[in-house]
Design goal:
The structure is a single chain. By secondary structure, this protein is α+β, with helices and mostly antiparallel strands. Strands 1, 2, 3, 4, 5, 8, 9, 10, 11 and 12 form a ten-stranded mixed beta sheet that branches. Helix content is 25%, strand content 32%.
């Protein structure tokens, strides 16, 4: 008989770009089932990372799946790069750039000022390309069929801080610390609108979830060593 402790773990994984969070869960589940010759094992994650994002994903297995709700409520930290001067339907690099505009009027001082405007309690609308369910279907499935005119309710989120790291126009690199439920893609889209030039999330790395850090995470190919 398998000891529950053997299959109950909290894994810190570095999710690669173009993997879904479910892909990581599915791979982890398959490896555990194969290693321990079992038919069923609970596996889940404590907060989705979009396919075009990389970084820290916490995967819980066995009895530790009971801890997922607590982990989901932890603050998150990200390193982001936004591209000024255009937007995309998905608010990130999944879809094509459109509506190109000049960003020559945008200064570093203006960017820092807008960052301050978006710090604190915020009302934020999720992107249409998201995993939210409407009538049992994920929104991103509707969006990929071209159903983009979906009215979404705003949600309360907390942006604890936004810190500028580097500027190489049109690319702006910055760090965000925020609450559960914050969509960085929506934040970047809203910042771009306020800057009057548009912007989308060019790249995203999640670096921290609560006290858990990306530097302690393992690569996807190393899961078998930790289960």
């Amino acid at each position: 008989m398998i000891n529950k402790q053997d299959v109950s773990k909290i894994l810190l994984l570095n999710k690669p770009i173009d993997w879904t969070s479910f892909d990581v869960v599915k791979k982890t589940r398959g490896l555990i089932k194969k290693k321990y010759s079992i038919k069923k094992i609970k596996v889940g994650h404590s907060g989705t990372l979009d396919p075009k994002a990389s970084g820290l994903l916490i995967v819980c297995t066995g009895d530790y799946t009971k801890k997922m709700k607590d982990l989901e409520n932890l603050n998150k930290k990200y390193v982001c790069v936004m591209k000024l001067g255009c937007v995309t339907d998905s608010f990130d690099s999944e879809t094509k750039e459109r509506n190109h505009k000049s960003y020559e009027h945008v200064s570093i001082q203006k960017i820092k000022s807008v960052f301050l405007d978006f710090t604190g309690d915020q009302e934020q609308k999720p992107p249409v390309f998201s995993a939210i369910k409407i009538r049992g279907e994920r929104l991103y499935k509707k969006a990929r069929r071209g159903e983009l005119n979906i009215e979404l309710k705003s949600r309360k989120v907390l942006i604890k801080k936004i810190i500028l790291i580097e500027e190489a126009f049109p690319l702006i690199k910055f760090e965000v610390e925020c609450s559960k439920g914050t969509y960085i893609r929506s934040l970047v889209n809203d910042i771009g609108a306020k800057l009057l030039c548009g912007a989308y999330l060019h790249s995203l790395i999640r670096t921290e979830i609560g006290h858990f850090k990306l530097k302690n995470a393992i690569h996807i190919d190393e899961i078998h060593k930790s289960i």
